[in-house]
Amino acid sequence: MSLLLTIAGFIALLAGGELLVRGAVAVARRMGISPLLVGLTVVAFCTSAPELLVSLRSAFAGSPGIAVGNVVGSNTANIALILGAAALVKPFAFDKSDIRIDALVALGSSLLLLPLGWIGRIPTWFGAVMFASLIAYIVLSYRREVRAGTAASDWHAEEVTDFETRVSLPVSLALLAGGLLALVFGADWLITGARQIAAALGVPDAIVGLSVVAVGTSLPELATSMIAARRGQPDVAVGNVLGSNVFNVLSILGLTAITAPLPVPATMARVDIPVMLAFSVLAIAVLLTRGRIGRPFGTVLMASYLAYIAWLYAPAI
Q1: pTM value?
Q2: Mean pLDDT across the stretch 157-178?
Q3: Which residues contact 15 (CB under 8 A, 6 or more apart)?
Q4: Is the pLDDT score of 216 beyond 80?
Q5: Mean pLDDT confidence for 242-269
Q6: Do residues 87 and 231 touch, judged by C-beta distance below 8 A?
Q7: CATH number at residue 101
Q8: CA distances from 193 to 68, 188, 280 (A)
Q9: What distance in Å separates the CA atoms of residue 194 and residue 214, rounded to the nearest whole number?
Q10: What is the residue range of 286's domain?
């Protein structure tokens, strides 16, 4: 029953996220907002809505391990699983200067979690600082894309076109409402199922958050990066991963902490956050020095990630 509830939660989250994005994009475009700005704001926020709802629901349900583990696990999966999978689909090379700023911001936002883990909590005031930093990052990214006209800006316009729905305003609002409703129920089912699985396996909530929940809520990023890799847009595939990691930390943890101070489990501070940082430093170092990711490195990333997941569950086997 717990597995079915978890799967139902994933399906509801994916469907809810899709409806939310389509409704929000349709409303934003009717308001005359440019595709680039819609892509950087509306699409980015809405595609992160499943992670946000899961983290908020986890925190309110008394499972901060799932809330923080969802973000730490998603960032680890983004770097190791998604970049690795994209490289296996099609090895890619790109202009290092196109991703330098996003790579450094992603690394910096991830590094924030290290001292917060040592402190053992994310205070409400710092959650507000994190979210304000995200807004500043979006504004600067928009200005940079407008000036440079990079492939990323073309991708955002394409993404908005894919999501744009030629429907009336009432239908757009209905899509928004339906998406939010599906997200709320999906988050509730997923957290309930995940907690039951954790209890049945005798593992902490945090481990389920780091693995099952994290991978499930990272599926949209995986799909986007795979599509970009197939289309020969490697900087978009990499930028999608880096941007998602920034959003996960600054938006999801920031907004969750604003609702109430968010505890960071001690084991996560000692092991899982350093593991996430190790993957991030390794991948970003390769990205910024070599400007390419081939199948050998992609294989190393994926194999290392699978070994990490196996290590998490080893005590329960």
Answers
A1: 0.81
A2: 67
A3: 179, 182, 186
A4: no
A5: 88
A6: no
A7: 1.20.1420.30
A8: 17, 9, 30
A9: 11
A10: 2-316
